Amino acid sequence: MEKKFIKQQTHLPGPVSKELLERRNKYVPKGISNNCHSFVKKATGALVEDVDGNSYIDFAGAIGTLNVGHTHPRVVRALQEQTSQFIHTCFNVMMYESYINLAERLCKLAPGNFDKQAAFFNSGAEAVENAVKIARKYTKRQGIVSFTRGFHGRTLMTMTMTSKVKPYKFGFGPFASEVYKAPYPYVYRRPVGMTEQQYSAMIIDQFEQFLLAEVAPETIAAVVMEPVQGEGGFIVPDIAFVQRVREICSQHGILFIADEIQTGFARTGKYFAIEHFDVVPDLITISKSMGAGVPISGVIGRVEIMDAVEPGEIGGTYSGSPLGCRAALSVLDIIESENLNDRARILGDRVIEKMQILAGRFECIGDVRGLGAMCAMEIVKDGQSKTPDKETVGKIVKAAGERGLMLLSAGLYGNVIRILMPLTITDDQLEEGLQILEEAFDAVLMNDHVVSAGR
């Protein structure tokens, strides 16, 4: 296939990137990881160009931050207009209309036929942290329940809620108290011989037993759930599990918090992924693609819950900045005008189709899964043992990068390839990216793995 969008002028990384990389290694700590060793010069839509003139197709989307693509013209115009008027006053000092406009639009979009309010912050972790504060204030309880393989951030509280030890928690304790981990469905890794229906019933039973063995429900302020686990490996729970957790929360006065940091803003084919499960949360946390690359996050929830906190108890100097609010309003305009919810479903269908073709060729692709345009493949050493193969995933991601495709891994075992391309990607760009993905598999796997003769 002739490449129309990916242009390679130099070996990667190029000479200018190598020089910058040396300076990066000297002045920036190694604790900040870098997936790609090139440096960006400009980016538009789903295309990125580095400082050496090499171009890439972006299947990473800044870890799900760019559903509307890089430098969308409507976002750029809104930011230019805002910076020409004022950059920041701090909403706590002098308010601005864009904050109110954004809160109103999000409250109307969020599921639930009840009055809502929204508060804005800077990052996904801040949103989750503040949702926890609000839940504890409202319920007058301390316990917080998150789930195995969940990811909620890197602050003390959200790091505690996060399930993966390395690299997120190792050596950073002691952790916050009164945080508990509950079981979360993982259909691909269900016990041998068990049907999906039997497995679903078992996980629901385990959750109910958890409330007897680990923490009493009357002490729990909130259950925090990713409708689709992001960093955990793009794991989609079954509807029965999500609905049963919601029922249990309602029975015991526990708030149900949907963490939509990575799943929100059309990624799964709806504004909020929780809508797929016919469940209405009490609070929703949002960030990432909310601002098209401009830092902003938020919590949306029932009025009586949001109003439980007193003035000054939540917020911050840059929380809900004018730039973030204007960017987020533009994102909502783009999602609506360009039908990105529909586009996400179309993209997801095509990506899953391609992944299934690859799974028919390569035995090491143990599972293909996703919701909307949130798609992933799990790589294993063989289909019987399902032993995670992190090393091969690393090789595939590297091979894709060398060919101009920006790609990410995920999962508790680091053995999942996830795709988070901008929803504004063109069909031609998508097909070229998928072709590069297949080339990367061929380069790594043709000699290293058994090729299935038709599975």
TrEMBL record:
Record flagged with keyword Transferase: yes
UniProt-listed InterPro entries: 4NH2But_aminotransferase_bac, Aminotrans_3, Aminotrans_3_PPA_site, Class-III_PLP-dep_AT, PyrdxlP-dep_Trfase, PyrdxlP-dep_Trfase_major, PyrdxlP-dep_Trfase_small
The protein's enzyme class: transferase
Record field: catalytic activity: 4-aminobutanoate + 2-oxoglutarate = succinate semialdehyde + L-glutamate; (S)-3-amino-2-methylpropanoate + 2-oxoglutarate = 2-methyl-3-oxopropanoate + L-glutamate
GO annotation, biological process: gamma-aminobutyric acid metabolic process
Named cofactor requirement(s): pyridoxal 5'-phosphate
Entry superkingdom: Bacteria
Entry's family note: Belongs to the class-III pyridoxal-phosphate-dependent aminotransferase family.
The name this protein goes by in its record: (S)-3-amino-2-methylpropionate transaminase
Organism: Cytobacillus oceanisediminis
